[in-house]
Amino acid sequence: MMENEFEEEFIYHPLENIEDVDLFYEAIGREHLTKAISPERPYTYWTIELYDQQNGLRGGGGLGVLAADTRRVAEKMGVPFVLITPFYPHETHQTIHDGVVYDEHVDVDYHKFGFRLVDSVNIKCCDALCKLEVIEKKFANTRIIAVTEPNFGELYSDTSGSDHRLYQEVSLGFGGYAALKLIGLKPAIIQLNEVATFFAAVARLDELVHNGMDFYEAVVYTRKHTLYTNHTLVQAAEAEFTLEQFERYVFPNIKSSAVRRWLSEKFEHGRIKLSSITIEIAELKSGVSKLHTRVANYHDVAGNKVKFKAITNGIDMDAWVLPGIMSFYHQAQILDERDMPLDDLDIKLEALSAMEIRLAKNNGRRVLNKVLEHRPDHRGQVLQFSDDDFIFDFKRRFVDYKRPDLPFRDLERLRAVLEEHGAHYLLAGRVHTGDHVMAGKLKHLLEAVETDDYLRSHVHYLPDYDEELAYGLSAGSNASINVPIVGLEACGTSWMKDVANFGLLISTHDGGVADGSINAYLNVSGADENEELNMLYQRMEEVMSAWENDFDLETLVRRQLVEFLPVISGARMLKDYLDYLFPI
Known about the structure:
The chain folds into two domains: 46-313 and 576-581, Glycogen Phosphorylase B (Rossmann fold, 3-Layer(aba) Sandwich), CATH 3.40.50; 317-568, Rossmann fold (3-Layer(aba) Sandwich). 41% of the residues lie in helices and 17% in strands. The chain is built from 22 helices and 19 strands. The chain is globular, with a radius of gyration of 25 Å.
């Protein structure tokens, strides 16, 4: 088709039944739209996973936990907010026997968690209609809307780039957008959390064009209402889909020939990375830490490096911080009623004493022991710890770049460090299903520990890591180990929960930790991994000694809080998003 024929086919059409037509024309030429959020036009947040065990949804890691925290923060701040996600009817739990991790598959019934069935919507895949149930759970000013069906499977089931993974993503995008319309909502903004949610923006673009908006104007409109939040660092690591897969799963759900043609043109050699087109459909783009926005290696279709706005992740403080510590933050006017950090943190935190820190951690130790009563370690032992026991923890996904095995590279040195103060080391982190390399590393690590009498009784792996374990360890451990390879962690939020709960942080300067000063915590660095390992052992010795000295303990905890409370606040995070999306 010649260029002029293309233009003639998609000539301007009268705008009828298009949302915010007047606002659209006012917005052309402006950097952003300024439409106020309302219950009818909420902030919509799209995520392929939600880790919210209280509401019956179990995710795979930090992305899902962040989604749950963001909704709770929006609830507290009174922001009309809708989270759209799949509800997976099956979930995976992990057990461990003789060092080998086994997956157990459990059915999940959404009725047990307060969701109501709204109705159903249909999407088209492989020349067939697929019926998706639309379920909903309402809160005061937020809600969770999910799409589900019996064959949906589990989160991240099958391999990246597979038909089933594409089906799940298409179901979330096209099915989730249809669910919004079914309920009678129109999005003020679409926040796409990672490229798996890309099809929500396509569904909106297709609706606008199908209802009569000129294609090019519809692209501008969709772009101005869409935020792409990237949570990974390297574009090349993402899965690819083929044109043939799109013809079976994606194109049947698009009514507009212009939108289908536009998508078809984005394929190179019959393949496409969703990040390339997500970058194009979203004018607003954010990364999840300052370091992330500097090192993320993403390029648009023209080959230009993409610039991201730094909006560092935060946590819902009420969900993750001990009530007694939260009372201190509020009474000392360190946090306001919405958990936003107030001014003069350094002065106000001078009231925090070593006695109060230890008392709070003793209360946290009771919380941890309560959790451990029904969470035995890899040997089947039920662990209980006294207030005098010193506990290090590593509680993150068990993946290579986070280096869960780093402290175990020199077992003699590790034993000497722990034995000097009678300390324990708790490992908690899920091995991804199918990750045979890391499953092998975990087995080797545990076998090595068994060869040493002291380590055998002081190193424990806690299987099936989840929110409950994360909270218990954040509350009850003395120090947290966070040693990702620098440049590979986008943000991370586990360390935030430790800092907020008066735990001491031993970390490399990576992810969200790098938002603060390198002197704000116990930094691990070195010219190579051997130097890093030596410094890690030194930091472990320092932190145990500091816990026994009032001045050192107060200094370290206060310094962390002064630097990081403004970083880790979920209220700060959501405010940053709102300021970015709806500037005054």
